[in-house]
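Progress report, Aim 2. The chain analyzed during this reporting quarter is listed below.
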Amino acid sequence: MNSSKIIAIVLIIAALAVGYIGINTVVANTESFNFLGLKFDVSNESGKMKGFLYIGLAVLLFGGGVYTLNKSKS
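Predicted structure tokens for the chain:
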């Protein structure tokens, strides 16, 4: 197996892991509840931003993995 294919697979697996962490971070920092008919939003904005940064990094890693995989085929 070519070393560039291995690197591409590692990048794609890392993208999935980082994306999973990012989604869980966003979900954990998003909370809202209803009390006496009023909706309260107690979200942690900095935590959500951190989660979105993880998701963005995952997209970049995935794109790099796919690009490297396609480049190694040709």
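Strands lie at 32-35, 38-41. Residues 3-73 form one domain. These observations will guide the mutagenesis work planned for the next reporting period.
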